[in-house]
Design goal:
307 residues, 41% helix, D-Maltodextrin-Binding Protein, domain 2, Arc Repressor Mutant, subunit A, alpha/beta
Length: 307
């Protein structure tokens, strides 16, 4: 087993495929595949499951990756200390549902960094894909929510994939609407108040289940529904069509301007927002700093941090 082989495994996981990893490593795909197979044979384990849809980490592979990353990190520290080698790029990858506070924490984390080089990834994506990203360690952590409606299904899925949910805060239901919306002056709104307006929801693609919806009360019948794939489009439709979406209520005017406001929704349903990570991994210092910044922001917004 060599350090090069460990770096190969880490790069494959980062890229999500052997083909893309080979391109970035400037070696041929067969050479990289053979290096992985040689390592698997030497260790007597299967690091990757290989299917027609691509590769994914096995249970043994997940554990091996955690050790491999620690070895490479310690090796780089030795090289910096005794060989004067330049520190490698700071790396961090996070997957999240479409939350402004998650982006805000990411921005603050980068602004506080005092390094010459970094390579970060922030994926605002679908619920199922967040779980897949963290399961396969393409992301160190993911941000999702649980509710009385989805918790049994999602907790089962998390357990099956060896993922742990760590609560951040519990939020009362709110709606995001335009600051000039006909309901903008109300102290709170009901679903009946909203019935005439378009409901905006993030589409979930192939795994389009009510349980994966980013909006609570997803099973309520609605006269008008528009599915979108990103926050910018959603906010534009909130303004242009007097639409609404259901959310945590945490809104940052520095990132989103003053055209969108948050109004409490009259319902007993709540959202328990938290972060997920693989049970066999140790979070990097950057991922831990990101969680700390999330907690600081949540507290600043007036919510009680749960952990």
């Amino acid at each position: 087993m060599t350090l090069q082989q460990l770096r190969y495994i880490i790069k494959i996981v980062e890229c999500g495929s052997i083909t893309e990893a080979a391109k970035q490593l400037f070696i041929s795909q067969p050479s990289l595949s053979n290096a992985v197979k040689d390592l698997e044979a030497q260790l007597g384990i299967e690091i990757f499951y290989r299917t027609t849809k691509g590769i994914s980490l096995s249970s043994d592979g997940t554990e091996f990756l955690s050790y491999a990353r620690q070895v490479i990190e310690q090796t780089e520290l030795l090289e910096q200390r005794y060989l004067g080698k330049k520190p490698s790029k700071q790396l961090c990858s996070i997957s999240t549902q479409h939350y402004a506070f998650a982006v805000n924490a990411f921005v603050n984390l980068l602004l506080a960094l005092e390094v010459d080089e970094y390579e970060f990834t922030l994926r605002e994506t679908r619920t199922y894909e967040i779980i897949e990203d963290v399961k396969n360690l393409r992301s160190e952590l993911g941000i999702i929510y649980l509710s009385s409606f989805n918790e049994k299904v999602l907790n089962k899925l998390l357990k099956e994939n060896h993922l742990i949910f760590n609560p951040l805060f519990e939020a009362e239901a709110h709606v995001f609407i335009s600051s000039v919306h006909p309901l903008a002056t109300k102290k709170s709104v009901t679903l009946e108040d909203l019935d005439a307006f378009p409901f905006l929801a993030f589409e979930q693609g192939e795994y389009n289940s009510f349980y994966f919806s980013e909006e609570i009360l997803s099973t309520v019948p609605r006269r008008k529904t528009i599915h979108v794939s990103d926050r910018a489009t959603l906010f534009n439709l909130l303004i242009g069509l007097n639409g609404y979406t259901i959310c945590t209520g945490v809104l940052n005017s520095d990132l989103n301007g003053d055209n969108i406001i948050s109004v409490p929704l009259e319902t007993e349903e709540k959202m328990l927002v938290g972060w997920i990570a693989h049970e066999k991994t140790r979070l990097s210092a950057l991922a831990s700093d990101y969680i700390a910044e999330l907690k600081r922001l949540i507290s600043e917004y007036g919510y009680g941090v749960l952990s």
